[in-house]
Design brief:
Blueprint lengths: L1 H19 L24 E5 L5 E5 L11 E5 L4 E8 L3 H8 L10 E6 L2 H11 L2 H14 L5 E7 L5 E7 L7 H11 L2 E6 L2 H8 L23 H6 L6 H4 L14 H9 L30 H19 L14
Parallel strand pairs: 2-5, 7-8
Antiparallel strand pairs: 1-2, 1-4, 3-4, 3-5, 6-7
Length: about 325
């Protein structure tokens, strides 16, 4: 009993530390069928989440009593990894279909066990090296003259493999870089490119709504956002107001799209006429919300100075030091 209680405490601590690494609270799926009886032989697939937005689907071959939030040890490639259960039951198959995953090509690995104390300790030791490895990896990539940036590093639970997340505008030939990484870190290397949205979610910040960015709190999947979403909702066509911190269209433009699409099919107007904005003059520097201009005070001061000079020129002059002429 005491051993089981200690293990649960260790799992909770691991889950809390994972929260700081943007994983444990990014759970966008609600299992609304969790209280229904499930035939475990028909629904043995489990969704497992690791660091950031990385997820995988595993088979519960030993029929372990798993639920959302369970910390488990799963099969790796090679070795093993430690992650958190985010979804069980029939909804896993629906999630796979929603994400357009081809199960004929997808390799489904097995769940080994509930994470033991040794598994958790080894995973924590591996994760503790991630920041130092990322700094060193950036220096090595720069020394090779590669146009890329190492955004993050994720160690596998057993510490034998690491995923290097990188950001690049174009295609990068990192074959030589992988050899250098393998010789330097003595681990198996996997390179994975991420986009601007994933990078913004990793860094975090506050949106124009005043709340923390969705991509850094709960979003794990980034769908494409088109300008048609803004036109359908009658939003301002100003790109500065539609773009997020990642310089892409805001993800929240898709949130109310189904409502507007349904209203359009029914011929219901939701006030979606696009406002015609007058072209704004180029005022130079703008702050984050685009409403202020630091030079406005200078222009106002210059305007007052010109008025003062004009008023002084219009005033009659009284020169007391002028000498009178003989005719005066």
């Amino acid at each position: 009993m005491n051993d089981h209680f200690t293990l649960n405490n260790e799992s909770c601590l691991f889950s809390q530390r994972s929260c700081c690494r943007n994983s444990a609270h990014m759970l966008p799926v609600t299992d609304w069928m969790s209280d229904l009886p499930v035939d475990i032989n028909e629904a043995d697939l489990v969704e497992v989440q690791f660091k950031n937005t990385r997820k995988g689907y595993y088979r519960n071959v030993d029929h372990l009593p798993l639920e959302k939030g369970s910390v488990i040890t799963v099969e790796g490639n090679p070795g093993h990894d430690v992650g958190e259960v985010t979804l069980t039951g029939y909804l896993v198959a629906n999630q796979i279909k929603k994400n357009h995953i081809d199960m004929e090509r997808y390799t489904i690995r097995s769940i080994y066990r509930l994470a033991t104390e040794q598994d958790l300790q080894r995973a924590e030791e591996a994760h503790a090296k991630e920041h130092e490895t990322m700094i060193k990896a950036r220096q090595l990539a720069k020394s090779l003259g590669l146009e890329m940036k190492i955004g993050d590093v994720e160690y596998q639970g057993d510490g034998t493999k690491a995923i290097f997340y990188y950001i690049a505008d174009g295609r990068v030939d990192f074959r030589q870089l992988i050899k250098v990484y393998a010789e330097t870190f003595r681990i198996r290397i996997e390179m994975k490119q991420i986009g601007a949205r994933q990078e913004a979610g990793r860094i975090g910040g506050t949106g124009p709504c005043g709340r923390e960015l969705c991509c850094s709190t709960w979003m794990t999947q980034f769908n494409s956002v088109g300008t048609g979403a803004a036109r359908l909702q009658g939003l301002s066509p100003n790109p500065q107001k539609l773009a997020g911190q990642c310089a892409k269209l805001k993800c929240c433009l898709n949130y109310e799209m189904p409502v507007y699409e349904d209203a359009a099919k029914r011929g219901i107007s939701l006030g979606t006429s696009v406002p015609q904005e007058e072209p704004e003059p180029d005022l130079g520097f703008r702050n984050a919300v685009g409403e202020g201009d630091l030079s406005r005070f200078d222009r106002r001061k210059q305007h007052h100075d010109r008025n003062d000079r004009r008023n002084r020129n219009d005033r009659p002059r009284h020169d007391h030091h002028k000498r009178p002429t003989p005719n005066e």
